[in-house]
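STRUCTURE:
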């Protein structure tokens, strides 16, 4: 139950003045559905509302308020020209300009002979001062403008006055809340109390007050980050207590696989497997992220983890985000499964009904040890005899709920399967904290030995012919190459057209049979055939859209050409490049760009030339593009932040994370006085789920 003190803030926004049946949807667009939401709408500007004597001598572009008398109206003479109202202030006549207004409305708010205050931006047109679309105040009905006013993000149909009025009403409803921040920390940062901060947020008097680094905004951002981190830590503490199966295994199957490998595990792989085995041996549920660059050898680690489940008499499932990836995993794991002598199957939405029924029956009967699949694994009809381990590949494409849903199939009695999440997207520390705070992390920071560095070059598209010439020479010597065509503005039709064009041209240049093509719109049979041709070497060039981004594994491929590299994100380019350099032969990557490149674009592509370290690339990407843009906030699994901005408040995130850990270590039940205040914060920031976990503890 939410504390009573917060009730006023959770009332429907419609209880605020100016929020009615018509405007409520507009307020909802601004994220305001409850009274409290209005508190967290940060102003984006500030207007000086101090009334000046006249617009005389005022510079172009200045915003100000003056008292005027309405002189005359002049309706537009031609369609498209504005409605003009001449007014006079203490010293000068000037013109209020309205484009496409309703004349009756103007006659009502600005009647000839009336006295009004108008506020707006001064422009000059033909030497005459004018003020387009001013705010109008009627001194007989409302207070004269005064002081400073916050400017809120605009949404069509909602005037500033309406928004400001609703915000002020929400502030009036706002109770005093107990302080949840550590007093010493507050003092050190010289931050205001919560209520004071919220009031200051909505009362800017200078542009400095709009700065994300202003004390009020920093404090509120910290509250937001702390509530998020605290929720993660609490949920995680609960997960740690969540019962799981203790899976130990005797190591027999793992030994067989290790003996079959032509290489040794890397130190990082060994450490990860050890950490996983330790987690799995506990009668608690594992929730671990296995993070590592493309080619770091995550799949093998995951397979070992699945073998532990099988050695313990249970089953394991590996879930991939796409059909292609599921099939590739299935194919890739075949040899390992054979070496271990375990039964491996695949389950996807595309299976024939009879086949699928058969697989499901075998899973239920325990005749399959390890199953690889897609979303199809979630389905209610899929039951396991004893699911002990769930591996989720490329987790950002699945939601947290989905991942848990599958693991819950483990047992009906609330004992879920262990979860291992694999991610090949290196995530900078700041973002990892924010989005994976609820997981333990193993990082494969060491590549298998013997990999040659990839020779990465930037080449202008104007040298396309040269590139094709060298490609012809290379495939003449037996090389295999990817040619990646970019996404065209999110339109997969154009996208496909571009890939088809490119394939046509390259076939003409390199020979019909030499070029295969794979893209998102193909029937899966066609696509599989293309991939297969490339895998076996029947085709030496694979023209593809970004479908190959994840997971294609053809160690013989040594050339990666990326067309319009400047349109891709750095992380994506890094992933694509990781498709080559997998074997022992020297590989190259050609970043074909459309010039001229701006400075940032040049710098971004330059980073790729300098390093193959995915974490460094991610950090650089973060620096050059900003956190909001990096992965797409949603992809990174971050909640939408209202005030906090990781570009500015990134360092506060680490503090919030430590603070949250410390709080939970000292007072797991949030029972102390500060703990009670923190509960209020969690509810205020709508982290109700975490508080529920608390009371269930
Ligand atoms: P990831 O899934 O992390 O991108 P993979 O698991 O697909 O990487 O591994 C890439 C390639 O490296 C595979 O061909 C795999 O067999 C091989 N590999 C894995 N571990 C090692 C190792 N310790 N030494 C040499 N090669 C390895
Ligand atoms: Mg992989």
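SEQUENCE:
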């Amino acid at each position: 139950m939410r504390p009573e003190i917060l009730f006023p803030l959770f009332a429907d926004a419609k209880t605020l003045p100016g929020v009615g049946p018509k405007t409520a949807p507009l307020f909802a667009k601004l994220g305001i559905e409850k009274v409290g939401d209005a508190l967290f709408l940060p102003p984006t500007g500030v207007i000086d509302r101090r009334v000046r004597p006249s617009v005389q001598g005022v510079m172009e572009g200045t915003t100000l308020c003056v008292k005027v008398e309405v002189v005359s109206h002049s309706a537009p003479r031609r369609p498209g020209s504005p409605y003009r109202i001449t007014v006079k202030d203490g010293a000068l006549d000037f013109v209020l300009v309205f484009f496409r207004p309703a004349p009756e409305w103007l006659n009502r708010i600005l009647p000839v002979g009336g006295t009004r205050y108008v506020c707006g931006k001064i422009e000059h047109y033909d030497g005459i001062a004018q003020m387009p679309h001013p705010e109008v105040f009627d001194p007989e009905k409302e207070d004269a403008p005064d002081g400073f006013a916050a400017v809120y993000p605009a949404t069509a149909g909602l005037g500033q006055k309406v928004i400001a009025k609703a915000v002020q009403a929400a502030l009036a409803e706002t109770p005093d809340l107990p302080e949840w921040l550590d007093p010493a920390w507050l003092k050190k940062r010289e931050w205001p109390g919560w209520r004071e901060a919220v009031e200051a947020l909505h009362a800017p008097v200078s542009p400095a007050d709009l700065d994300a680094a202003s004390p009020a905004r920093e404090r509120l951002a910290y509250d937001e980050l702390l509530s998020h981190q605290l929720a993660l830590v609490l949920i995680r503490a609960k997960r740690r207590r969540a019962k799981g199966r203790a899976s130990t295994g005797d190591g027999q199957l793992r030994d067989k696989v290790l003996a079959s490998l032509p290489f040794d595990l890397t130190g990082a792989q060994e450490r990860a497997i050890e950490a996983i085995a330790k987690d799995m041996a506990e009668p608690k549920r594992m929730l671990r992220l296995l993070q590592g660059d493309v080619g770091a050898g995550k799949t093998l680690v995951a397979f070992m983890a699945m073998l532990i489940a099988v050695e313990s008499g249970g089953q394991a499932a590996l879930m991939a985000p796409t059909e292609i990836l599921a099939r590739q995993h299935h194919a890739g794991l075949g040899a390992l499964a054979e070496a271990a002598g375990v039964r491996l199957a695949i389950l996807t939405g595309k299976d024939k009904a009879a086949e699928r029924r058969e697989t499901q029956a075998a899973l239920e009967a325990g005749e399959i040890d390890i199953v690889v699949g897609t979303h199809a694994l979630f389905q209610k009809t899929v039951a396991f005899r004893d699911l002990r381990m769930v591996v989720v590949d490329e987790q950002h494409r699945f939601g947290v709920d989905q991942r848990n849903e599958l693991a819950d199939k483990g047992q009906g009695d609330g004992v879920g399967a262990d979860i291992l999440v694999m991610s090949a997207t290196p995530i900078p520390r700041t973002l990892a904290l924010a989005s994976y705070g609820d997981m333990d992390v193993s990082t494969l920071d060491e590549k298998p030995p013997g990999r040659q560095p990839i020779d990465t070059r930037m080449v202008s598209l104007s040298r396309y012919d040269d590139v094709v010439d060298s490609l012809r020479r290379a495939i003449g010597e037996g090389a295999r190459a990817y040619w990646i065509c970019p996404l065209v503005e999110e339109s997969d039709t154009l996208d496909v057209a571009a890939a088809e064009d490119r394939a046509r041209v390259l076939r003409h240049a390199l020979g019909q049979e030499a070029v295969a093509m794979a893209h998102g719109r193909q029937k899966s049979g066609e696509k599989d055939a293309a991939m297969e041709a490339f895998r076996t070497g029947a085709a030496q060039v694979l023209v593809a859209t970004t479908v190959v981004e994840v997971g294609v594994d053809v160690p013989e491929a040594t050339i990666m050409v990326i067309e319009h590299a400047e349109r891709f994100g750095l992380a994506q380019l890094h992933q694509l490049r990781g498709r080559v350099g997998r074997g022992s032969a020297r590989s190259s990557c050609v970043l074909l760009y459309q010039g001229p490149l701006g400075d940032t674009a040049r710098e971004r592509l330059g980073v790729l030339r300098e390093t193959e370290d995915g974490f460094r690339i991610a950090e650089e990407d973060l620096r050059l593009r900003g956190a909001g843009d990096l992965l797409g906030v949603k992809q990174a699994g971050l909640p939408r932040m209202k005030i906090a901005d990781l570009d500015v408040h990134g360092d506060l995130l680490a503090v919030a994370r430590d603070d949250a850990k410390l709080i939970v270590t000292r007072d797991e039940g949030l029972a102390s006085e500060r703990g009670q205040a923190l509960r209020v914060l969690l509810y205020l920031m709508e982290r109700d789920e975490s508080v529920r976990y608390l009371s269930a503890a």
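REMARK: The chain is about 40% helix and 20% strand.
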